[in-house]
Write a structure and sequence with these properties.
- It is a single chain.
- Helix content is 34%, strand content 25%.
- Strand 3 and strand 4 (78-82) form a beta hairpin.
- The radius of gyration is 19 Å and the shape is globular.
- The protein has a four-stranded antiparallel β-sheet with strand order 1-2-6-7.
- It has helices spanning 2-6, 16-31, 33-43, 85-90, 127-133, 145-159; strands at residues 49-54, 57-62, 71-75, 78-82, 94-98, 103-108, 111-117, 139-140, 143-144.
Amino acid sequence: RDDLKRKGITFQSHLDTEVLLMVLSKEIGEHGVKNGFKNTLGILKGSYSCALVINDKLYAFRDPLGIRPLIFGKVGNNYIVASESAVIDVVGGTIIRDIEPGEVIEFSDTGFKTILSSPAIRKAHCMFEYVYFSRPDSIIDNVEVYKARIMMGRTLAKEAPAKADVVVPYRFWQNA
């Protein structure tokens, strides 16, 4: 944000998404879609998973570390991109696969294709996706959220035993 401000870019909000869009817009304008995405993924630091439309094509992309999840599927003849598989399930869609860390997928009337695959050397998934953000019936990066929670609970019970009658997630009410 500060670098862009020094270059005379004016922001309308304080949202990180606006920074991402400003960088992506500049890079695509100067280098085309594929190289624009490549440069943007190299410039940006942090976590993001996004979907946006450019000239009648849908693009979905994920940060190179894979911090935030992104998955896609189909509902009828239409593609759907979401942060978790439960969204695709709820609308009666069919899951195709996760969007990989550092991957950019282009969706068009003729199908989809990976236009960039630029993952980091290591992955760094956000633990909050499994314990806080996602529905228990979701699958994130081929891991069932419910099973992940059970395994983490067992590990926690072994490492830090507590006298308790029942253990519930912090946001249990969210799924009621």
